[in-house]
Design goal:
DNA-3mA_glycosylase, Adenine_glyco, Endonuclease III, domain 1, DNA-3-methyladenine glycosylase I
Length: 223
């Protein structure tokens, strides 16, 4: 694999100046900012990610105020009490997207958040304290203990809340393949570990957050 210096110079050539490059790169939230996000906002964002999957984002976003209403502001202690009959009634509510599998995921993910909060004090503390040097481990935790959080849903959720992560988009995977790090979309634990190792090395060389390295890497492909 190439070192960070090559990646930096490639992106610098693309954008023309350090200022122009920096303007295109995201900034993750600090640990304190992640801790300050309430559990209901984490649940709302998690549910938003689940409903966005496979659907037009603008359609889901336009209906989200109604989702906030029917799910009690996504307060986990209230949402977790929603049983099958309640969810069936929501299937008749034309203000929201009536997808039973996705609706069922909300109380299940509320339970995960409550379980984590009981152990860690809050879901925000759990997210803030997870080391980015093992961010794929957090993806795995969310996929295992959450509902409908497989595939790219976990890293996309983390990016939405501001937790530093890379996301294996098509362009980023193509760049990793070009670097000889992996040979396909990383789904196995071995391939994910190889990707994590590469990002840890680039981060060590640059001091940049994973989300910036992820986007810089994507810029090296098809642009």
């Amino acid at each position: 694999m190439r070192d960070y210096q090559w990646l930096h110079e490639y992106c610098l050539n693309r954008f023309g100046s350090v200022a122009a490059l920096e303007a295109h790169l995201p900034q993750p939230k600090s640990a304190a900012q992640l801790r300050a996000i309430s559990d209901d906002r984490y649940l709302s964002t998690l549910a938003l990610r689940v409903f966005r999957a496979g659907l037009k984002h603008s359609l889901v976003d336009a209906k989200w105020p109604a989702f906030e209403q029917v799910f009690f502001g996504f307060e986990p202690h209230k949402v977790v009490l929603m049983g099958a009959e309640h969810l069936e009634r929501l299937m008749q509510d034309t203000r929201i997207i009536r997808h039973l599998g996705k609706l069922k995921s909300v109380p299940r993910n509320a339970q995960m958040i409550l379980d984590v909060a009981q152990e860690k004090g809050s879901f925000g503390a759990f997210i803030a304290d997870w080391p980015v040097s093992d961010i794929v481990g957090l993806w795995k935790y969310l996929a295992k203990h959450g509902n409908q959080m497989g595939g790219l849903s976990a890293p996309r959720f983390l990016r939405m809340v501001g937790k530093d992560t890379f996301i294996p988009t098509d362009d980023m995977v193509a760049a990793l393949v070009a670097q000889g790090i992996i040979d396909k979309q990383p789904t196995s634990q071995r391939d994910l570990a190889l990707v994590q190792q590469a990002f840890n090395q680039w981060q060590g060389e640059s001091g940049r957050p994973l989300c910036q390295l992820s986007l810089m890497l994507a810029y090296t492909v098809n642009h």
